[in-house]
Amino acid sequence: MAAVAAVQLPELVEQAAAELGGDPFEGIAEGTHFAQPALFIAGLAHWKAAGEPDAAFWAGHSLGELPALVAAGALDPAAGLRLAVVRGRLMEEASAVRPGGMVAALGGSDEVVRKVAEEFDLTLANDNAPGQMVLSGDSEKVGEARKALRAEGAKAIRLPVAGAFHSPLMEPAVPGYREILDATEFTPVEGAFSCITAAPFDDVRADLLGALTKPVRWRDTLAAMRAAGATAFVETGPGDILTGLSRRTLGEDVESRSLAEEIEAAQPDPAQEAAGA
To answer: What's the pTM?
Structure first.
């Protein structure tokens, strides 16, 4: 991610370093206050490296909503990065005030995961795809839920995050984020979907604010874009996780592909180059 960002968006890397007091990519493992700006820049950098492809519809998963809005023309890149910086800091501070955790349930039935969430008073924070859901809440209860999910036959993985993201435990971050959202300019665009409402953005500031404490409805968002006429889903950020979720949710009915994966595949093999030399 860092290499692509340095080539494609050096001005955003410089802005982030100035605001954070350090390179976001070098500090990405230190906490979400570094990780969120890094992911914002990386998402846009890979989109730019792919030729800034246009689309009829746009959506981002969680923090990914910000680079998606930039790509859609609704948000200035520098302003989007500022939102990512403040969002990451506020969420990290909220995690210190109200500690929590998250656990991914893979392979279990939706009914079992929802039952476990209710039993341990956890939030279904990410409904990503059939057989791919994430619970969020009190750290101790997340640990107990992990055991319960495994007992039910699901693969349960504790996520390496310091907070209960997309749950009411993020409420301390809301006032500060509301303040910077109110001060940020957005341009109305068509085709940009909120992953929280699974519908086109209505009030973009309210929808982005709600994303702090409300679940990501990615499965529903993909289905809504498909119903609106989308026939091909292209992941423009780093990696191919969303491509896998699209295939899992929509099956072979649509085309799902990762541009970052294609860019990487097109790069020359250093070993072959050395052999040729």
So the answer is: 0.92
